[in-house]
Structures are given as structure tokens and as C-alpha cells.
Amino acid sequence: MNHIALLLMPLVLCCLLANAVATETAPRPRILLLTKSSGFEHSVIKHDRRGTSHVERILTPLVDEMGGSLLCTKDASLINAETLEDYDVVIFYTSGVLTEVGEDGNPAMTEEGLEALFAWIRNGGGFIGFHSATDSFRSNGDTPTPYIEMLGGEFITHGAQFEGTIRNVSAGHPAAKSLPESWDIQDEWYLFRHLNKEHLHVLALLEIGDERQKQKMYDIPDYPMIWCRAYGDGRVLYNGMGHREDVWEHPTFKALVEEHIRWAAGEGSLNADPNYEAVGLD
Questions:
Q1: Mean pLDDT estimate for the chain
Q2: Which CATH superfamily is domain 27-157+191-203+226-264 in?
Q3: Which pTM value belongs to this model?
């Protein structure tokens, strides 16, 4: 072994040791994915003859690569105080009143389970909602339900799918640090009400563009599509995308999902100061 190699060996050993320590100490999030549909069931979360859904087949290897664990279920009765103790992050891709069996026939959540979810988040749990999570526990009138207040917004309706532009308005945020300044993507774009402006930290807006001239319902100002907030000691994030299979397959979206999970699990700064007016929204 030559003299240079001998000099470099301690440096190489230090790098290897540092990588090993980082691997051992990196958070290994324990995730529960609930895809119960008491209302409409989206194609991306339907179980096919393989017994799994498209979303599950995207999330499983992603979580494996993170060193985490993932339970995928349509059984909403698992949202209870005892079960939640075993998880760091809960993800909802759900619809309807989840305390009712509803359309898919899978077990419902109890009222006590819903209260346990709120308490678990307030005590430091991480919650992520995708797409139709805002179509769960919807309000009957002008007052948002406790779930909608927690999540930060409520689905109203949607039009025909179109290619919209997602504009990053919180550059460098740990929950969306890989999101480009602007990203054009085809999806089904929800319209919302009961946006919790006093608590939302908006991460990205939907820029509607020329679609204003094509669909009257979208003849409105650009509006939030990805946001986060603090909820007690917990972290809550909503991403309105993910209706389409190819959105879940897109590398940019998969990178976002990983960052959402890491942030919800407590990695990185909270950075959830309300910014509704700061990003030019009324």
C-alpha cells in the first residue's frame, strides 16, 4: 500500500462511520395509510385482483427505501387510541363520513376513534391528506366540521381534468423542497371552501391559466392546492393532487410524497407560520 493510500485511509474510515451512524439515527417513520371510501371510491385506491391498490404499490417501495414501515388498510376502525400509539404518520385518501360504513362496506371509524385521532395529532402525530381527504366529514352548512377545521379546507366540486400549473410559493420548505418553481401536470383539480386562512401555510398554488376561458367554475383567482399547518404539537399537510394514476407515478410527485412524510414525521423545521396574505391571497 502506497504512502498516499495510508494517509487517506483514516478519512475513508471516518466517512464510512459517519454514514453508518446517519443511517442508524435517521428517522424510520411508521405510517398508517387509510383508504376507506364511505363515499366515492377513486380508482387509484381500489383493490384489484392482486389485492392491492395503485397508491399502495407506489407507497410501499418508497417507504421501504426510507427505512420506514407501512400499514395499508381500508378498515377505519383501526383509527383508535391504542393503534395510533404505534404510528408516527397517518395518511388519509378517503371520502365520505368515515364513521359510517358507506359505499365500500369496510368497517367504519367510531366517534371515539375520530376524537382519538385529533388528540393524537395534537400530541405530536403527523397527518397527511391526499385529494379526496377533503371530501371526508364534510360540513352540512356554513360551519366546518372539526375534521375540516383540522385539515384546513373542504372539497366543493371539480370540473373536467386539465393541465394546470403548480407554483411553489414556499421555496425551500422541508415538506416540498424538491418542488420546482412551477410544474405543469394534468390532474383533477378540486375547488375548496372553508379554507382555514388563519392557520394555513400555503406551499403551492394552482395556476389556472387558460382554463378560465374553458370552464366557468375555474374563472376564479389562483388558489391553494398544497398546504400545511400546526395542530397543537402535531403537523398536518394536505395535497389536493393524486386523482390520476400517472400523477402518483411521476418522479416529482413521488419526491413530494417522501418529503411530505418526512416533514409530518417531525423531520426538519415546522415552518408553518400562516402565510395566506403573504402569498397574495385574500
A1: 93
A2: Class I glutamine amidotransferase (GATase) domain (3.40.50.880)
A3: 0.91
